[in-house]
Inverse folding.
């Protein structure tokens, strides 16, 4: 994919580098010459430019990218204006880092397809892992639903999915199982699939139902 990253602060740099290492074409844009020079090592193209100059953006071909990631720090007006321009230039996916909820509302109104709060999200993940150590990771899908990775609780070990009957008992669905101590993942399994000690369960469910499951492992 062809991806543009606007803003080379800490978040923007890490996003650009990670995408480039995965083989994507990454174009980085920032007004700060020193940051752009450093970014040349881990981007396809690094450009010193004013992110709110629409004519310049089009001349640079940034209206043809598949995804735009906007991370302009505390400059709220610039991120809003850039998001609007990207929307008008028909960029399909516009992912923007927001500072607060009011900023988020405006970004969504002018065309952001996804608004993120990296610091807040990481803090919530950390709090969740400290609160329930057996929960390895989680992904909020909406206010109602989330996906979690959890070490198989002792009461689950040695039982089949049919015996556990998790959908009826807890309202949750095991969508994948990663074998303990390996990268092998099972996504399609029969009701007689047996849970082993050390297995990691990837579970989908309502927030309140998943909270009930967490209590099993605390």
């Amino acid at each position: 994919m062809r991806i543009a990253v606007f803003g080379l602060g800490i978040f923007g740099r890490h996003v650009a580098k990670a995408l480039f290492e995965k083989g994507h074409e990454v174009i980085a844009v920032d007004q700060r010459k020193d940051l752009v020079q450093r970014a040349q090592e881990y981007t396809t193209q690094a450009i010193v430019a004013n992110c709110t100059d629409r004519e310049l953006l089009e001349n640079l071909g940034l209206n043809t990218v598949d995804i735009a990631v906007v991370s302009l720090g505390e400059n709220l007006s610039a991120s809003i204006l850039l998001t609007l321009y990207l929307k008008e230039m028909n960029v399909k996916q516009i992912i923007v880092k927001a500072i607060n909820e009011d900023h988020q509302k405006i970004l969504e109104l002018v065309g952001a397809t996804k608004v993120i709060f990296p610091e807040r999200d990481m803090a919530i993940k950390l709090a969740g892992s400290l609160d329930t150590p057996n929960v390895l990771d989680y992904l909020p899908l909406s206010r109602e639903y989330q996906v979690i990775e959890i070490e198989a609780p002792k009461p689950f070990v040695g039982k089949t999915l049919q015996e556990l009957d998790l959908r009826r008992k807890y309202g949750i669905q095991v969508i994948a199982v990663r074998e303990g101590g390996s990268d092998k993942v099972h996504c399609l399994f029969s009701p007689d699939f047996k849970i082993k000690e050390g297995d990691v369960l990837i579970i989908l469910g309502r927030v309140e139902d998943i909270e009930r499951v967490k209590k099993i492992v605390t």
